[in-house]
Amino acid sequence: MTDVTIIGSGLMARAIATRVLAGGGTVQILGLTPADADRLAAELAAPDAVSTGEVGADPAGAVVILAVPYAAAVPLVTEYGERLDGKVIVDITNPVNMATFAGLLTAPGTSAAEEIAQAAAKGAKVVKAFNTTFAGPLQVGQVSGQPLDVFIAGDDAAARAAVAKLVRAGGMRPIDVGDLSRARALEWLGLLHITLQFSRGTNFASAIKIIE
Ligand SMILES: NC(=O)c1ccc[n+]([C@@H]2O[C@H](COP(=O)([O-])OP(=O)(O)OC[C@H]3O[C@@H](n4cnc5c(N)ncnc54)[C@H](OP(=O)(O)O)[C@@H]3O)[C@@H](O)[C@H]2O)c1
């Protein structure tokens, strides 16, 4: 049985797969080509816990993480259609205008996560998570010895809890922020965190943490 399917084989796919494996989970990587997925699997060096395939193959995991650019996410869930019915779909995208870093590509009053939910199969549960954690820190699960906070939004409590369980198993702290419309705030927070890299010179090694 596979716990998590990750679509994409880039930086975030590698970091999230590393955390899932650290938590004792199993991962299926679907790459744009089989060779892309195999290359990441070789880096992960956990052959018993990692399977691979090509984007378009059936997702084996109950949780499906879209580790792809924002522009690819809605076309992907549309293409998968009913094959994502019943799955927890995790949207990690930051729909940032990369030309200016001045704003988001989404319309006011919505979010990438809500766009994905609208396009997804009726029985799929969309959760926003990991968009405020940079790939480098996520790879190790912490910054300055402090576990990362992973903010989680979604309309289905059981789906949020499933993602929270993965986060906790991977050595991080899940923070449930409520329903999927909170993804709007998370996506603006993601943009803010990105722009702060330039003004503070932190080179995508910082983390956003709630101190209590
Ligand atoms: N990097 C970060 O620190 C960070 C932090 C938070 C959130 N995010 C978000 O995470 C997502 C992935 O970012 P990343 O840094 O991992 O990017 P990345 O390293 O460029 O990886 C993106 C992956 O998606 C694949 N891909 C591209 N178009 C696709 C399509 N149409 N269908 C399926 N797969 C496709 C890419 O394949 P090719 O390489 O062959 O193009 C690559 O494997 C983005 O939405 C980003 O906003 C990133």
Shape verdict: globular
Mean pLDDT: 97
* Tally of structural domains: 1
CATH topology: Rossmann fold
CATH architectural category: 3-Layer(aba) Sandwich
Biggest β-sheet: strands ordered side by side in the sheet: 3-2-1-4-5-6-9-10
CATH superfamily, by name, is NAD(P)-binding Rossmann-like Domain
| Termini gap | 38 Å
Order of helices and strands: EHEHEEHEHEHEEEHEH
Helicity range? 25-40%
Question: What is Rg?
Answer: 16 Å
Number of helices: 7
Tally of strands? 10
Strand content of the residues, in percent? 15-25%
- Which regions contain 5 or more consecutive residues with pLDDT less than 50? none
Structural class: alpha/beta
At the first level of CATH, the class is Alpha Beta
Characterize the structure shown:
With 212 residues, the protein is of the alpha/beta class. The chain has a single domain, classed as NAD(P)-binding Rossmann-like Domain (Rossmann fold, 3-Layer(aba) Sandwich). 37% of the residues lie in helices and 20% in strands. It has an eight-stranded mixed sheet, with helices on both faces. Helix 2 links the parallel strand 2 and strand 3. Helix 3 runs parallel beside helix 4. The longest helix has 18 residues. The protein is globular and about 40 Å long. Bound molecules: NADP nicotinamide-adenine-dinucleotide phosphate (NAP). The site of NADP nicotinamide-adenine-dinucleotide phosphate (NAP) has 23 residues, from helix 1 and helix 3.
